[in-house]
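We close this part of the discussion by returning to an individual protein. The amino acid sequence and the backbone structure tokens for this protein are reproduced below:
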Amino acid sequence: MKARRAPGDGWVDEQLQVGGTSVHYRRSTEEGGVPLVHLHGFAISGAYLMPTARALAARGVNVVPDLPGYGRSERRDRVLDIPELAGTTIALLDGLGIDRAVLVGNSMGCAIGLEVAHRAPERVDRLVLVSPAGGEHNQPLGRAVGQLARDVFRESTRMFPVALPDYVRFGPLNGLRLFAELTRFPSLERLLHTPVPTLAVLGTRDPLLPSPDRIREVARLAPEDLTVAVVDGAAHAVNFSHPVELAGVVGAWLDDAIGDGSLLPHGVRVVTAT
């Protein structure tokens, strides 16, 4: 059963039972097109993804869930790991009657999206990975914590009142435990084996991502259906800080219109191997 709250500005807030847990999500009311499902990072709800989701709402249905244990969704007796969150995402698609979706992940949401794509590629039309953290560059954990601390000072101050209540509610121990798992997830390496067309979008000021040389190496090794783009001046939470640029490159990619990059927003460019 879905409980709908009063709609406003083209969006509604709803609840859905997923595996015995009440999951809160925001849904745009524009119909048509392949649904876009936005997946948030660790210890935070989907609220910070809304600027980009709103910018993409004209394309059709956009869904922004708070995964179990996050935001306004029901807490679990323990923190779900990345494979379990991927299973929850598939169950959420089932509950919403979505056969195929474009998954738009940020940070840990990228790892979840990759897991869904590998487990059930028939459910993923395309995959967008924004700031896919994880892997050797984020190890050991102490190094990753330092990278995360640097990112705090690079994000927009407007994000603090959005993110801080979520982090407090999630709890520092839970956050550290899940962050440790995320650092072990080889996101960039798994990009090379995605079974669905994939767009990776990276911020040039994101301290959690590898060096430009490593990113160019990934672009060189990438299969034909993997596109890598960068947003100048963006840190880790590109979905919040640069929604116009992110929505622009996502829209152009979904329309197969990236081409030579002339249609991309200012400050966005495609990474080539050279």
Remarks:
- The mean pLDDT is 88.
